[in-house]
From TrEMBL:
GO BP, sorted A to Z: methylation
KW Secreted (keyword) present: no
Source species: Mycobacterium helveticum
SUPFAM superfamilies in UniProt: S-adenosyl-L-methionine-dependent methyltransferases
The protein's name: Class I SAM-dependent methyltransferase
The entry's keywords: Methyltransferase, Transferase
GO molecular function list: methyltransferase activity
PANTHER family registered for this protein in UniProt: S-ADENOSYL-L-METHIONINE-DEPENDENT METHYLTRANSFERASE YKTD-RELATED (PTHR43619), S-ADENOSYL-L-METHIONINE-DEPENDENT METHYLTRANSFERASES SUPERFAMILY PROTEIN (PTHR43619:SF2)
Domain of life of the organism encoding this protein: Bacteria
Pfam families: LCM
InterPro entries: Ppm1/Ppm2/Tcmp (IPR007213), SAM-dependent_MTases_sf (IPR029063), TcmP-like (IPR016874)
Coiled-coil annotated spans: none
Length: 276
């Protein structure tokens, strides 16, 4: 059996242990939403007590609904653009490149802080067309390392809230300018969620800080020139939410009378460049 890999993370990088763990737990459910066996194997490789971050199985749908929704959208992009570049920003330990198994003409980059990438290297294998980029999203020189030919997908799941609004908007604008055509698939917390961050167990346990809150796609459209909205859904409207357990579905129904609660977690998808 492979030796366990030790983990020493704090702040925003540590939060990806929670998303990994919840995906790993989901993989063992009788009715998984994501069913990510890679997450299960990766979590088992880590020498880490996941109970330290205060996350339990009942919260798994909060992550797996989102990840499964972005898998669907990313697959759709890959089907239309079999020759493209995918930049998976704030990848954490997510195994999307293995789940989606893109074709030979796709260049795929997983980008995260160096300590996260170092952990990935010890746990996941490599594959053709796949590269790891250790970098902070806000130091955008990493973008210059990626050839800017052909359409590009920026997939940024669970990272926008760790950036300030100015950092996030600058990054999205730079991406759009550099690649000229493609999509941004990115999720947001609402402003209310950002304001109430002291109540988030994960934020408290990791010592991370949340900044950028968005209440509607218009907030993003106003800041990032050249993009157009394809679709925006909340956790409760995502197609993958149908698989959530009863308690979540009841919360979804109740949230219809409380729009600020309904929009706490939002998944956005934008296009840029020529309309095809
Ligand atoms: C909540 S985790 C999400 C991980 C993964 N996307 C998922 O859904 O499982 C947030 C991730 O964003 C990364 N992150 C936050 N701020 C970042 C930054 N400025 N540059 C690079 N990565 C960042 C963290 O290191 C962490 O891996």
């Amino acid at each position: 059996m492979d030796q366990k890999v030790s983990v020493d993370l704090s702040g925003a990088p540590q939060t990806m242990l929670a998303t990994l763990y919840l995906k790993a737990l989901d993989a063992d459910f009788a009715r998984p939403i994501l069913g990510d066996r890679y997450a299960k194997e990766a979590a088992a490789r880590l020498d880490y007590d996941f109970t330290d971050i205060g996350i339990t199985a009942k919260w798994a749908p909060l992550i797996t609904v989102r990840t499964a929704q972005y898998d669907i959208w990313a697959r759709q992009f890959l089907a239309v653009h079999p020759r493209c570049t995918v930049i998976h920003l704030g990848c954490g330990m997510d195994s999307r490149v293995f789940r989606l198994d893109p074709g030979p003409d796709v260049r795929w980059y997983d980008v995260d802080y160096p300590e996260v990438i170092a952990l990935r290297q010890q746990v996941f294998g490599s594959r053709p067309g796949y590269q790891l980029l250790p970098a902070s999203a806000t130091d955008m020189s990493w973008l210059d390392q990626i050839p800017a030919d052909g359409p590009a997908l920026l997939l940024a799941e669970g990272i926008s809230m760790y950036l300030t609004a100015d950092e996030g908007a600058a990054l999205l604008s730079r991406f759009v300018d550099r690649f000229g055509s493609g999509e941004l698939q990115i999720d947001f917390y609402s402003r209310l969620a950002i304001r109430s961050q002291k109540g988030h167990t994960l934020v408290r346990r990791t010592g991370s800080k949340l900044f950028w809150g968005v209440d509607s796609p218009q907030d993003v459209l106003d800041r990032v020139p050249g993009i157009r909205l394809l679709i925006a859904v909340t956790l409760f409207d995502a197609s993958t939410f149908r698989g959530a357990p009863r308690g979540f579905r009841m919360a979804g129904r109740l949230s219809r009378i409380a729009p600020p609660l309904r929009r706490t977690l939002q998944y956005h998808r934008y296009a840029f460049g020529p309309v095809s």
